[in-house]
């Protein structure tokens, strides 16, 4: 009898390893087996899984649910790390001003810019909101930024992209991104205008949903007409939770999601992008198209593109100014000899990066609620987990100690998927096509509106509810979306309850 149980356990372990063990030099064979077993998708929906409530591993916080719930430092930071986090927090909130200014240490904003602070877009460390929906004042609409790119129409352009010199081809005048603001004396580039058309969707059980389909244009162009072939890609500021943990997921686990996805009928792809420090091609993980490899790259790109501030990785003081915008280069900049050659010196950059890596996940709520468990079952059975991969164990050798060997539940494969024509922006970015988006992590998503009541979902914030976000899924996710349409009203409500518990 005992031998039979032993064999059975061995069988289970082997089955698990066949499915999900990848080559990971950071783990010994015993650990590999444990990790394979614990990251196997569950099939028991009668009770919560072990540690499921701690969705961000040991860094997860149990705090009062209020609008500050996304702003806590990870629970497992040392005292010293907490001090660094606090300094980074100050820089994330700080309003930068244009040069020359009397507040020497925070000038250099612009010449062109989208916002004065990181927090201006990542509202209370959560996501932003879009103009055009009822309660939102248009002038507040900074957190929807518009990326600009041209199709790679000729061989020369294709070669520049292949060499990784650029991830997308900029507009010759307006650059990579539209900046709706400029310093005094310089024209701003323009403002986004959105016209929504309502699309009714009939759901099984007699329910209706109404999707808002956006059409984008640019008003008040400051530098003449846009290139006729230009593609606009509006993007909403995403929440800042658990980003260091996403960096600490082993690359081989992400690449293993490609085959695991194929077995489940989807075809995720990696976005290989250029590391600006080493020049190597590395796996993209961050942003809506996985166009940036790590938090430091994206935080530096934000200082440059969104605020016009130079950093070691993006050394131009003039951000996204192009050769066609000569007046832009004549504006004063904020570099100061005593602080080094960049407006945001390496030391400050390190604090902002550290902060951005360590915003804590809140504990899950109601994990043992019968409706939440029923919704979790719907989530698994509708094949949502083909892309929204539930859990990982992070690298044992992650660069920061608090991110090492953590069981985390981000619900993403960090891969690109064709999401159909409804969501397509026609914009290529690195290896991502004009129809592909990176699966966003779903952890924390249930508290979105607690933190910012105006926040909405999807890359351009067009979904006013979680259900609308799901109903926009097409392409590789069409079958999953159709299952949600075909659910009974109770099953659909359960699915949403599960998402709200994340
Ligand atoms: C103008 C609004 C805006 C400002 C200002 C801004 N961000 Fe962002 N942020 C965004 C948007 C939009 C994205 C997604 C971009 C994309 O998909 O291309 C993003 C993405 C990110 C990401 C990647 C998150 C993820 O889950 O992939 C990080 C990290 C980040 N920003 C950090 C910062 C930091 C640090 C600052 C300040 C230096 C900052 N941001 C300023 C709008 C903004
Ligand atoms: C083929 C891969 C795939 C499948 C299957 C899939 N998703 Fe997604 N999901 C994505 C991608 C990619 C996005 C981002 C799309 C965008 O922003 O345009 C997304 C976005 C979302 C969002 C909004 C996230 C945010 O931060 O705004 C929710 C909620 C969501 N999915 C839930 C689900 C549910 C529930 C299911 C199953 C019924 C599901 N997804 C199935 C890939 C997938």
From TrEMBL:
Residues 370-502 form the Cytochrome c domain. Pfam families: DHOR (PF06537). Keywords: Heme, Iron, Metal-binding, Signal. The lineage of its organism: Bacteria, Pseudomonadati, Pseudomonadota, Betaproteobacteria, Burkholderiales. The keyword Transferase does not apply. Residues 1-18 form the signal peptide. InterPro entries: Cyt_c-like_dom, Cyt_c-like_dom_sf, Cytochrome_c_Peroxidase/MauG, DHOR. GO terms for molecular function: cytochrome-c peroxidase activity; electron transfer activity; heme binding; metal ion binding. This is C-type cytochrome. It comes from Pollutimonas harenae.
């Amino acid at each position: 009898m005992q031998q039979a149980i032993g064999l059975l356990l061995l069988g289970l372990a082997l089955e698990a390893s066949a499915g999900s063990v990848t080559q990971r030099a950071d783990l010994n064979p015993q650990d590999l087996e444990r990790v394979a077993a614990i990251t196997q998708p569950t099939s028991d929906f009668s009770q919560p899984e072990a540690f499921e409530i701690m969705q961000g591993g040991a860094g997860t916080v149990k705090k009062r649910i209020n609008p500050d719930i996304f702003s806590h430092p990870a629970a497992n930071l040392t005292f010293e790390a907490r001090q660094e986090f606090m300094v980074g927090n100050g820089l994330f909130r700080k309003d930068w001003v244009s040069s020359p200014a009397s507040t020497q240490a925070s000038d250099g904003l612009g010449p062109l810019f989208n916002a004065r602070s990181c927090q201006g877009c990542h509202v209370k460390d959560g996501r932003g909101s879009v103009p055009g929906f009822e309660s939102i004042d248009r002038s507040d609409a900074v957190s929807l930024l518009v990326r600009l790119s041209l199709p790679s129409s000729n061989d020369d352009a294709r070669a520049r992209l292949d060499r990784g010199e650029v991830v997308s081809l900029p507009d010759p005048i307006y650059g990579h991104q539209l900046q709706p603001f400029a310093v005094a004396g310089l024209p701003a580039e323009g403002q986004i205008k959105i016209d929504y058309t309502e699309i009714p969707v009939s759901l099984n059980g007699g329910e209706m949903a109404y999707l808002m389909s956006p059409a984008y244009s640019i008003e008040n162009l400051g530098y003449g007409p846009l290139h006729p072939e230009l593609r606009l890609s509006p993007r909403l500021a995403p929440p800042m939770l658990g980003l260091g943990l996403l960096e600490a997921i082993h690359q081989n686990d992400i690449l293993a999601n490609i085959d695991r996805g194929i077995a489940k009928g989807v075809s995720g792809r990696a976005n290989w992008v250029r590391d600006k420090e080493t020049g190597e091609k590395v796996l993209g993980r961050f942003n809506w198209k996985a166009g940036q490899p790590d938090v430091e790259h994206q935080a530096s790109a934000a200082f440059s593109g969104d605020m016009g501030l130079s950093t070691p990785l993006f050394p131009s003081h003039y951000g996204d100014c192009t050769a066609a915008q000569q007046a832009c280069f004549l504006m004063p900049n904020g570099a100061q000899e005593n602080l080094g050659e960049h407006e945001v010196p390496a030391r400050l950059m390190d604090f902002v990066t550290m902060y951005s890596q360590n915003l804590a996940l809140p504990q899950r709520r109601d994990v043992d609620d019968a409706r939440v468990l029923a919704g979790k079952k719907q989530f698994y059975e509708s094949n949502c987990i083909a892309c929204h991969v539930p859990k990982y164990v992070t690298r044992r050798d992650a660069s920061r100690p608090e991110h090492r060997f953590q069981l985390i539940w981000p619900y993403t494969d960090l891969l690109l998927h064709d999401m159909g024509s409804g969501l397509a922006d026609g914009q290529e970015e690195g290896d991502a096509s004009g129809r592909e988006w990176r699966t966003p992590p779903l952890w924390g998503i249930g508290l979105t509106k607690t933190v910012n009541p105006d926040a909405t979902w999807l890359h351009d914030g067009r979904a006013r509810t979680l259900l609308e976000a799901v109903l926009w899924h097409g392409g590789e996710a069409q079958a999953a979306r159709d299952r949600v349409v075909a659910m009974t009203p109770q099953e659909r409500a359960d699915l949403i309850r599960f998402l709200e518990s994340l």
